[in-house]
Amino acid sequence: MVSNDGSTVLPDLAPPRAFDQACRMVVDYLAATLPLGAWAVTRVAAGWQTVLVAHDRDYGLQPGWGNRWSATMCRTMVTGETPRIVPDTTWVPALAVPAETAAAADVPVAAYVGTPIVHPDGELFGTLIGINQQPVDAGFVAHEGLLDLLSSLLSSVLEADTNTVDSARELERAVSDAETDQLTGLLNRRGWTRWLEREEERFRRFGDPACVLMMDLDGLKQVNDTQGHEAGDRYLQRTAETLRRATRHGDPLARLGGDEFAMVATIGPDDAGPLVARLQRVLDDAGTPCSIGVAPVGVASGFSEAISEADAAMYDDKRARKGRSGSTDA
């Protein structure tokens, strides 16, 4: 940044150990040196922009708050349609808010600042943004170099932290026998619980889009009762193999016990419905019909709330499927 005497002053930042720490340090520094209504780091994935870290005084931004990417000011900044720093949004037609909308809005965006955070290959990870309810001085554009420097810092920390996480995940994929269901080769309940414990902090840190799926087979009891438990075991194995073929590598699949299965899919909420429909179709085709519930994983709420919501949705689906088929099988 530029001091009162015209000299350049760089932020005094200790080397951060993790991406979320770096994000917090950057937004706190900007809030102290370039006060605006809000500063935030966001994640852009699966068609959504989600707040990871915020320093907010006017807008109520919190981790987990999100908006469709297509409706954001940051989208036009990233594509180059609008500048990175706009002291007065009425100067830029693509950002100007109609008078009737501005009059009705409780928290208008009259000044906008944004710069991309990217992966090493140039793919967009998210943005560093600042917004204000009143226009700022035109000289604010002089800070663009500082903002680019800070976003480059975040990109570098993101790369290092991502590499560390990826290496750890590769080691963890070699799970022990105690964490594997011997019948299906999937994670067992213990392995599922340990995976969630390991990944909880990582999902919060990077804001990766994810959904939890809870699944319950519709026909296992009937197979066991009419064909015997060996046939039931084959039924479970066929289910596991069908799920394994239908899901992407790296998304954890677990048999929690009996006829209960679970999964974390690295997809956004808009893709959850199509995924459930596809899984139910392939399981029906395999002769292992299944009731499925799905819920998104929130940055703030984490896996626990998503599991509860998905479990409730699964029982709703089971009741609906029973009603359509007239079946009484649990």
UniProtKB/TrEMBL annotation:
Protein's UniProt name: GGDEF domain-containing protein
EC number: 2.7.7.65
One Gene Ontology molecular-function label: diguanylate cyclase activity
KW Transferase (keyword) present: yes
Organism: Actinomycetospora aurantiaca
Keywords: Nucleotidyltransferase, Transferase
Organism lineage string: Bacteria, Bacillati, Actinomycetota, Actinomycetes, Pseudonocardiales
Membrane-spanning segments: none
Residue span, GGDEF domain: 208-330
Broad enzyme group: transferase
Keyword Zinc-finger attributed: no
NCBIfam families, per database record: GGDEF
